[in-house]
Amino acid sequence: MRPLAELKKSGRWLNDHSRDVYSQTGEDGVIAQALTTLPNRNRWCVEFGAWDGKHLSNTFNLVENDGYSVVLIEGDPAKFESLRKEYPYGDRAIFVGQFVGWTDDENLDRILEKTPAPLDPDLLSIDVDGNDYHIWKAVKKFRPKLVLIEFNPTASNRFQFIQPASAKSNQSSSPASLNELAKSKGYELICVIGPNLLFVDRQYYGAFGIPDNSLEIMRDEADVTHLFLGFDGSLIVDGPAYLRWHGGLPLKLRQPVPKLLRGYPPNYSPWQRLMFRLWKRLYRFF
Fold first, then answer.
1. pLDDT per residue over 123-155, tens digit each?
2. CB 55 within 8 A of CB 71
3. What is the CATH number of domain 4-218?
């Protein structure tokens, strides 16, 4: 069995090409390198939640520097109008003013089939801060070669969580659930970069020379927040303990066991055992 460090080095070689031109956490460099590994590129990409098509974009570098055509989808009317008027490469861009959903009437298939985009664009970038899982699951007709999709970086590699399919929900799904969805659709993980997973159509996976693409190999859990219990009933936090999407406020947790009872039950004094019996009866009402 190959050493863990060796597997990580071999599996994460795309991360060595991390570079930002317009992206946020190195996606531009990783995407560019991944694309050079693919055969028969058609130089089409798709991005939604496009905003101005440039700021923190995962496709603008391809359009500007690699001659790509792009489908840019933006649901906000004001942002869409600005995108349509100000995007500098309008001759190679298709603008769609619509939110992408997961129902038969508003999924990505229905949107893309009205454009000249091929059925297998080189790249699909999904970043909607929540319903990414449901949007990709609903794609049946179109099959991008690469799919870059956002996940919740506070979730562990083994935690299965799919956020509710609701336009009002912004929880984001766990990497394990997205990885499972990818495999069910015939895709394989080739890189974890920032809060994004990069998948490739399984038919091209062998070209990337990755010996083990499990999440345990491909992703460290430095950003993960773990909760666990002490034998005395204390709730303990391991990892980043702040609300990263709410101004970095410190995470405040209510301890489940009162301070007077926060001890190892077999070592309780007689009065603590009595207090515990009373508290246990009342616990359900708190």
1. 999 988 789 999 999 999 999 999 999 998 888
2. no
3. 3.40.50.150
